[in-house]
Write a structure and sequence with these properties.
This protein has three helices and four strands; from the N terminus they run ββββααα. The protein has helices at about 55-60, 65-70, 80-99, and strands at about 15-20, 25-30, 35-40, 45-50.
């Protein structure tokens, strides 16, 4: 399983360990990924995603998973998240036309 956030696209970064003698060796900085269950209000179901803590805070800041998906562009989202976004958009237009 790749170490990429499914919502933000945040992945590993490469840098250097720098010793006191200024020797540089390669190292990787991994994102803090968590397996979380997020609830979609429009779909009425819960979704398990692998999300970075930064992405989780962004979802909470935007008012939930549905709002986050509708505001985010498709380039950063994973395939599962893009499919979920399509379902959410379809459900939101169905509730808008019914009201």
């Amino acid at each position: 399983m790749s170490r990429i956030c499914e919502l933000t696209g945040k992945g590993r970064q490469v840098g250097h360990n720098v010793s006191h003698a200024n020797n540089k060796t390669k190292r990787t900085f991994l994102p803090n990924l968590q397996n979380v269950t997020l609830i979609s209000d429009l779909l009425g179901k819960s979704v398990r995603l692998r999300v970075s803590t930064h992405g989780l805070r962004s979802v909470e800041h935007n008012g939930g998973l549905d709002n986050w998906l509708l505001k985010t562009s498709d380039e950063d989202l994973s395939l599962r998240a893009r499919r979920l976004k399509r379902e959410v958009r379809k459900a939101s237009t169905a509730t808008a036309t019914a009201a």
